[in-house]
Amino acid sequence: MPYLAKRFEAAVSVLVADGPIKKRLIAAYSEHLDDLKSSELPVKLRPAFIKLHDALHSVKPIGRELCVKATIRKMSSREAGGHARTIFLLFSGLFHKDQRSVPLRAVDAPKKLPKKPLPSAG
């Protein structure tokens, strides 16, 4: 699985786990996606990723608190759920035929092994 797909898969795995949506969103984004650059994503996914990044970095943190944590703490559960959905849509977008993160490669069909004669009963 390509690098980006693994990162987004890990984030989605956190999002679908148990617990409050805000905690899951903080963990999913800060642990798996926060250090990604929009230029690493396919061109068609970049605007949504930039919008997500900006939305999750909009509140100035207090002390040593992460910016993402401060921002998500201030939003409603509904808003957090919307951002979680964006992460899922970006993940699924990596597999869409027009936005594949790596090109498909043709592979040769496996070669058939010659048939062995059946042992004779006798």
Describe the structure.
It is built from five helices and no strands. With 122 residues, it is an all-alpha fold. The relative contact order is 0.17. The model has no long low-confidence stretch (mean pLDDT 87).
Give the percentage of residues in beta strands.
under 5%
* N to C succession of SSEs: HHHHH
Report how far apart the termini are: 52 Å
Low-confidence spans = none
Shape: elongated
* Total E-strand runs: 0
Whole-number average pLDDT?
87
Structural class, please?
A: mainly alpha
Q: Number of helix segments?
A: 5
State the share of residues found in helices, binned by percent. Answer: 40-55%
**Main pleated sheet:** none
**C-alpha Rg (nearest Å):** 22 Å
Please provide a brief summary of the model:
The chain has 5 helices and no strands. With 122 residues, it is mainly alpha-helical.
Notable characteristics:
0% strand, mainly alpha, elongated, single chain
Write the layout of secondary structure elements.
Elements: H1 3-15, H2 21-32, H3 46-55, H4 67-74, H5 77-93
Helix pairs in contact: 1-2, 1-5, 2-4, 2-5, 3-5
